[in-house]
Amino acid sequence: MRRIAALLVLLVAACGDDGVNNLPDAPLNPDGPPLPTAPVKLTVTLAGDPAKDVKVFFQNADSSVVATRTTDAAGVASAVMAPGGFVTAIDPGLPPDLGGGFTFTSLSSWAGVQPGDDLHLDIGGGRPNTTSVTFDVVVPADPNAVVYALFTSCGSADITPFVPVPLKPFAGLIAVANPPVRVSLFGCAQNLADMAVMTFDENFTPVSSFYKTNVALADEATVELDGTYAPIGGTAVTVSNVPAALPNLGFDHTLRSPRGFLFSAFQQIPPVTGTATGTITVPGTIGTTSTMTVFGFAQPGAFSEQTILDWGPYSATYALDWGSTALKEYTSEPSFDPATHAISWTLGATGGTGDVVLAAYHSSRTVGADRHVWSWRIAAPAGASVAYPVLPPGQPFDFNTAASDVYGVNRVTTAKVPGGYAAIRPHAHVLEDTFVLGPSGRAVVVDMFHAGK
User: Between residues 81 and 3, which one has the greater pLDDT?
Assistant: First the structure.
């Protein structure tokens, strides 16, 4: 009998909860749909390196806890969970002596998580450019130039050579190549860089440029950039159906190579009877990807500000129908409700519908002599509100904001992106404001704008 009783205990234990992920080992209903098997994975880095021992909560859509993990030596935590749940990472807080007299903690959440998601989070803001390379650069002389500039995928520099005053009017005519100029760059991966040389006249108007890729760099070396200068043109822009509430548009035209940012030109163009036209001067022959960002500057009293990003190969023309592209604007200032753990706002009747919302709020609470401050951001499917998960209290602090706390909304951003929320979800907290996915596409973004700002 004792052996039978012991066997029954073992059988009961084997069929019950495993104590780790709070999901049963077998479906409660054998005839029902199978439980998800592909785990949700989160990789956390600190300034680009694996972040170990970061606490991560995996929760169902009702905030019930599926698993509590800490990231391993590779910065990875994972769990099997049902569709539609939450994943939250807690960045260890700064102690009071580093946080200005209070403990500061940063939390990052994803809502609507799906089995098989491979989420990414960097809690250090990217890898700092600490490695440097210093070299001399020699470029061909441009007879029409007074100023020379070097734009690279890891920094830029003024490379205008020193020319004695009496010879300045003849410098470009009597020299085939300029004298060497010392340059220092930071963060050049594998000591390789893509480079563009641009020249300017005495009024700093762009004149000409040329572009070189995969330039090898080494300390104390001399880099001779041979190339043929081509005249710098521009991109003719036309934006139609601009609403009267936007009396001015901003254009930021950015050129990039596969190695990174190269060059950016910004210009403001006021619409005339609903259409903005102009030319933005850029060296279109450099880089491989062009991004045109059009800002619709909000006016005092507005609750949101709209931005449209288009990226792909460079084109000498750019056309946009603002009216048919813009998303619904916010018609109220977003607010946080501690009772529902949600940020909400209202949307206008006209405009498109977004795919994703990125929101953040801050809270502070004093417990005895200790003051705690935390910020909490979340990525979620778009709508007119976003609900946060309710975390278990005392982990190691109750981060669920109460009505007695001091709190406020930092950010609400709605975006329509290629591939929708599923495409951006894995990197939502890494991309942040760029939303650039794939070699070409369009993102439409609406940001919270404080009324009367």
Answer: 81
